[in-house]
């Protein structure tokens, strides 16, 4: 009877260990998904193992089962006890193909000889507390006690998975830079792959009648990909060197490949930052001693003048690069127009994108909005419904492109799907898009109506000579903008000149207060000495 | 009164206090929380399950795990807040300690008060520092994170020792061991206690009052 009882107890423990192994891999892998976890309590006796809600990820479950090669309950199959050193290896792989193993979580069973002497299976003593003594080597017999200790072990595992360096890395992972991968295998943990100075932490040890169960983790502490590893892969260094010069050339002759610059990965961009050359995508910063308050005011004023392209008179004087841009674009558009009116819109937006990128620094959004209606005016003679189609479509297509960019930026690594950050992102997206769209439409309506009225006579020849119209319309807008811009500048100059006295006064005040303060200080010093 | 006692000494900025203490206490409580017991018969019961939540700290580069229980989180937060405010107030000299004490009650005959016997005490002793530069602050942010990692590892190590925890009693005496007031989890009976070294006598009176109130509430 006692052997029967022992067998039953062993079976129980075996079952517990099996489920502990299954849950262990779940906990470890799920903690590396890069998301915040939240599982809900179920006070009404949920049937989760170890009374902890760990939702099973089917892929991980399959992988674990495959690794353990668990046979069904039938006799002859290898039990979990023989399979046990079960490891979950977490590794990092960069977008460039470099791989680094970060940590190995393992569940091992160390067989203890001569335990068969302990015969009193504790199955009956369910109410027994979880271990009565302080001896760590004590063997637990009660199924209930083992179950409870496993529950604590699993809780410890959950807590500890959040503390190792790999957790922080996994939360920051993104497909552009690196991803976190897992591998489940049955073998001794391969700790030699973790580099020098790796740490070992024993999460828990549980002595049972079938052996002592040890859960532990070994993790890497040096988180730099060594240069020797990179040297093994040929040409890697040359690649990096060529990268070193690329952004500079991109700033000089920009129009050649504008998309390559933003497409570089995280590591490269980090290297770029280290070099500290001028990044055209960043806003200009005020100088070291500039009065930031005044600077801000000035830029706000700048924003108030969106009707005309800023500094257009400068461009015009130098041979009107806007017009050349305009002409090119119109050519593009009209070629597409002739072949397919629907496709034209897509190409149109991409065309803008490629031109936009190098000009982003000068904040040319007004030019962009002016450029859009040019083809529609030439096309407007065909039908008004088509025109409407054109008006609405760029506004639909171009935001989708923007959306892609935005989504990348709005990939909040710390936001769980339930958090409010998603709402914020949605709100931001709405805010980001709505105003410019309305502006475009209004501008289109205005410009198209004005050009329609002014170019009414030339409309029939529009399709034959589109560049002329486009030039005319943009030139006329430039002409109208030119004097106002000049006026504005001269007005500003006047303003500065009139307030020159104030500035002088201010400067002299500073001088005075400075001298008075030094005076008082010196007098203080005198008093002290007296 | 031979309760196990653990003391953690931490040094950090004032604004990191709440999160650091919460990290330690929640990690402990996560291990000391069971699922709710649902009695089906006198001796038969089923145990509910405990969910867990990741919590990201704002002022420390750290994420800790706690039970998914709003009421428990609120209780812990309130206690830590009171301590933290006291510690960071002007009349504090920047050091103090807060402890999380697990206890069990002993039934006494009527005229005597119920006796609480602590069996495990976790104390966090805190010293506040101020940083001069942002670099220093950043460095400290990392240091505190490393420190907490160490503490969490230590806590789990202790939890997996075969130390004494009270036995699960019958249904009628469940309240003597567990705090059954939470709707979703069932932690062992616990209470918070704190003190700051302000020197004056008035706060200690307040503490005593609070202790009395807490004890009466705990009953």
From TrEMBL, chain A:
It comes from the Eukaryota. GO terms for cellular component: Atg1/ULK1 kinase complex; cytosol; phagophore assembly site. Pfam families: ATG13. The keyword Nucleotidyltransferase does not apply. Residues 336-348, 473-487 have a biased composition (Low complexity). Residues 96-222 form the Autophagy-related protein 13 N-terminal domain. Keywords: Autophagy. Residues 248-268, 375-387, 455-467 have a biased composition (Polar residues). Belongs to the ATG13 family. Metazoan subfamily. PANTHER family: AUTOPHAGY-RELATED PROTEIN 13 (PTHR13430:SF4), PTHR13430. This is Autophagy-related protein 13.
UniProtKB/TrEMBL annotation, chain B:
Coiled coil: none annotated. InterPro entries: ATG101. Keywords: Autophagy. GO terms for biological process: autophagosome assembly; larval midgut cell programmed cell death; positive regulation of macroautophagy. The keyword DNA repair does not apply. GO terms for molecular function: protein domain specific binding; protein kinase binding. The keyword Nuclease does not apply. GO terms for cellular component: Atg1/ULK1 kinase complex; phagophore assembly site. Pfam families: ATG101. It comes from the Eukaryota. Belongs to the ATG101 family. This is Autophagy-related protein 101. It comes from Drosophila willistoni. The gene is Dwil\GK27578.
